[in-house]
Amino acid sequence: MINVAVCGANGKMGQEVIKAVKSAEDMLLVAKIDINDGEFATIKDAKDSVNIDILVDFTQPKSIYENALYCLNNNINIVIGTTGLSDMQIEQLEKLSKESHTGCFIAPNFSTGAVLMMKFAQMAAKYFNNAEIIEYHHNQKKDAPSGTAVKTAAMMAEAVNGTDGVNDKIGDFTNGNCTEIETIAGARGANSYNNIHIHSVRMPGFMASQEVIFGSNGQTLKIRHDSTDRECYMPGVLLAIRYINVHKNFVYGLNNIL
Amino acid sequence: MINVAVCGANGKMGQEVIKAVKSAEDMLLVAKIDINDGEFATIKDAKDSVNIDILVDFTQPKSIYENALYCLNNNINIVIGTTGLSDMQIEQLEKLSKESHTGCFIAPNFSTGAVLMMKFAQMAAKYFNNAEIIEYHHNQKKDAPSGTAVKTAAMMAEAVNGTDGVNDKIGDFTNGNCTEIETIAGARGANSYNNIHIHSVRMPGFMASQEVIFGSNGQTLKIRHDSTDRECYMPGVLLAIRYINVHKNFVYGLNNIL
Amino acid sequence: MINVAVCGANGKMGQEVIKAVKSAEDMLLVAKIDINDGEFATIKDAKDSVNIDILVDFTQPKSIYENALYCLNNNINIVIGTTGLSDMQIEQLEKLSKESHTGCFIAPNFSTGAVLMMKFAQMAAKYFNNAEIIEYHHNQKKDAPSGTAVKTAAMMAEAVNGTDGVNDKIGDFTNGNCTEIETIAGARGANSYNNIHIHSVRMPGFMASQEVIFGSNGQTLKIRHDSTDRECYMPGVLLAIRYINVHKNFVYGLNNIL
Amino acid sequence: MINVAVCGANGKMGQEVIKAVKSAEDMLLVAKIDINDGEFATIKDAKDSVNIDILVDFTQPKSIYENALYCLNNNINIVIGTTGLSDMQIEQLEKLSKESHTGCFIAPNFSTGAVLMMKFAQMAAKYFNNAEIIEYHHNQKKDAPSGTAVKTAAMMAEAVNGTDGVNDKIGDFTNGNCTEIETIAGARGANSYNNIHIHSVRMPGFMASQEVIFGSNGQTLKIRHDSTDRECYMPGVLLAIRYINVHKNFVYGLNNIL
Q1: How far is A229 from chain C (nearest CA, A)?
Q2: With contact defined as beta carbons under 8 Å apart, do D53 and D77 qualify?
Q3: Cβ of A180 and B202 within 8 Å?
Q4: Is the dihedral of CA B20, B22, B26, B30 positive or negative?
Q5: A90, A250 contact by CB (below 8 A)
Q6: The pLDDT value given to residue C161
Q7: What is the 3-state secondary structure (H, E, C) of B90-134?
Q8: If you write DSSP's letter for every residue of A20-45 in order, what string do you get?
Q9: Is C141 an active-site residue?
């Protein structure tokens, strides 16, 4: 059994993690830590009372770095879903994780489905000369395109840099398109890396969905991920807990263990 | 049995019509007319030899008006798929059709599926405050958005003009959306009638597809049409032939008989 | 302003209705009725204190008939989402509604999107000789196919009974299919009305989705509805409230007012 | 430049290959071989006249083994799309290819998109406990489910055999489903490997499409491939030509070079 503590236990994500850990047969929930009304107010309090193998942190940008330092200095493996760490802080945590032989798993996105979608899109990019991305979000999302869509396009572009002498893939993803005229501006979407066009749909009824479409004469290949509830992050969190419990190393990004 | 003549018999559409008429159990193909190498060179030649109930015309913008005049003046019902008639010419044909009690069916789009998609989108528009359109075409299409997408948006906007005191539908289709920022220009697509956003995808693998998406909290409704071959126009052509054979009146647009 | 009372105010659906009524600009929430801990315990209690135009009932099969009788006998228009009324009870309510000139709106499904999907499927059925249905539900649903899918198939079949001399639609929806061999039993799904095949997918990640697919040579038409949250029923409930407030008649089924 | 000969040059696939080779900038079409009216009647005839680097064979089951033997014995690399080779014949060709250091590429499916779909489905299978397959074909296909769907299910099942101590994936793909009752037989589809359910749709408007759907709480992941024209096989054929021109080894299956 893996002894798991949850930090940020009263937050929306924390509560989902608690449910998920409780229903995992190989895990034991040993501590619910939350500065507001938690079973324990601090990680130290919890550590003094129970034996923690892994701490999962979904707290605040302002507290995450201190939390992580404490864990790595006290031989507690940590899985971090909280955002807000700077590049320099991440580097420090990697160094400390290696020196202390204590696991540290950081992921900006714990959705297995979304991470697989990006990975598959990157793999398919080598074999198609035409691709576009459509992403769908609820209508309270301010920015378009989404960070996930831009990241996906960057990964696809990266896949076609260089050539192996066999695959003739060139960098451009609007290969062979005729000169296009927008009779209403914006029709062709956002032109991103290597001319991958991204289209952003915003309306109620969606939480977060994305479809990557590849085409060549006579065929299309579509990879689509829909999330409708934050429960979707739990399989990724459990996977990270199990992974870090065995490997006790530093990992950035769920994609590295899928 | 309905005696059908095809004008423009050697063109791509003409050949499809010939196949379709031959396989319809209630029709007899009586004449293949084509200025280039046809069984008959002109409609008059055909009329002098065989009995024609309906003539289907898929020829050229430059010849269609003369062809239609000839038919209406000679008691031949005509189904017109050829584009290029001016508004004034269409008015003249309507007048002549009524005076001569001879059927004249003109349709810019004979795809039953596409016409139904537009009709359903218009009907659904009254019940959703949020909607967007995505259209997919091959990469040799020059303009974006497609004419069909713009027409669909216009029909949807029309549906919400006025109010009946029961349905509180307002005109705007981005109802409740927060202020949006495009970090790459064009991400949110072409802003058309009543803020219906249209997104145009262009790549090989598609001929002509369109999806109209409606959303409200907790649900989405999607109406999608895919065409992959010009055979898709034949059910609409046969429907028009049968309709005009019975009604012998003037009709503009397949939607009026669906 | 329409004065609305909610009966079953503490149930899941009741709470959604309260939120929806509160956010509707033309409605006023005047009473939260619930036998367990409600603002009022009975409809009578509420009626004695406040002026009710419309009562929305999402309670229990065992109480709905009595509730409806009370409303119709006391000049309170009622919108009923509670299931469990027998055919005979529905008939009685219709009679009483007409005699008392008091509105009574009963709907087995308040999802506007689902009802429109069924209506569009029925309309399209006349123009396609081939159609199948795929429905997707969570994996705690016991029966397959879903009631909505079977109802949709029945409506599609109904649409092609009889002929109008123009449309040659015949009854069978596997028109022209070759003799099919299932190498694994069940591959071709459930064969329902007029050979409409229904396929039932069951897995977590879906709440309730359905896609009706029509095909002919060179084209497909798809009508798809996805529900991800019970909020999806609220636009239909509000629509019914507004309708019955104006018309004060008897209506069974949301489809009759869409 | 790669000198390419096409055997079966007058067949439907042969003609597509000729078009594809002609439009590839790094290839030269040197011979059109066809027993019926070809530029050359036999491979030997062609070899005597022109210099062949790669021969692409889309002929008949009855001739393919002889053709392959001739090529491998005469230092001509061969790409084989023709079906009908027995397992023993394939073994012989592998042996001969290795001995002669002459390339031999055999693929049952040259569609890059279909092969990637299968590969991605296999990869995703490790991370989801629930998955089903829907495949769509034209209505002249006799058997259901399709060979590709069954092959995909087998690959997905294979992916979850054994355990790595980190991922808790178990073999069953209807994990957590309640006891299901089919009120119409077949609703839940064909139950294949590890309870992967396969649903087969048959209607005009599709050539060959397949969607693999994975679900967990709050998310779904879909991988879909649509083919609408046999042109879709050409990128895979060109890829095989280029690969075998460099590596001159034995390869069975396009998936091994993607």
Answers
A1: 9
A2: yes
A3: yes
A4: positive
A5: no
A6: 73
A7: HHHHHHHHHHHCCCEEECCCCCHHHHHHHHHHHHHHCCCCEEEEE
A8: HHHH-TTEEEEEEE-TTT-SBSSHHH
A9: yes
Q: Which domains does chain C have, with CATH numbers?
A: 2-106+231-257 (3.40.50.720), 112-227 (3.30.360.10)
Catalytic residue among B32, B47, B137, B197: B137
The neighbour count for residue D236, using CB atoms within 10 Å, is 25
Give residue-wise pLDDT tens across range A55-68: 999 999 999 999 99
CA distance A228 to chain C (A): 7
Secondary structure, 3-state, B161-204? CCCCCCCCCCCCCECCCCCCEECCCCCCCEECHHHCEEEEEECC
Cis amide bond preceding B145, omega within 30: yes
Residue A226 structure tokens: 């829909």
**pLDDT of res. C171:** 82
Given a cut of 50, the residues of chain B with pLDDT beneath it are: 164-168
Contacts with B205 (C-beta within 8 Å, 6 or more apart), sequence order: A130, A214, A215, A216, A217, A218, A219, A220, B138, D226, D228, D232
Buried b / exposed e along B7-29 (16+ C-beta atoms within 10 A): bbbbbebbbbbbebbeebeebeb
Measured CA distances, D56 to A5, C26, C140, D15, D20 (Å): 61, 72, 52, 11, 12
Q: Residue C225 burial (CB < 10 Å; 0-12/13-18/19+)?
A: buried
Please confirm, yes or no, whether A247 is among the known catalytic residues: no
* Residues of chain D contacting residue A134, judged by C-beta atoms under 8 Å apart: none
Both tokens assigned to C38: 């409600």
For residue C80, what is the enclosing H or E element?
strand C77-80
Q: Lowest-confidence range among A129-133, A152-156, A164-168, D116-120?
A: A164-168
Could you tell me which residues are beta bridge partners of residue D219?
Answer: A227, D216
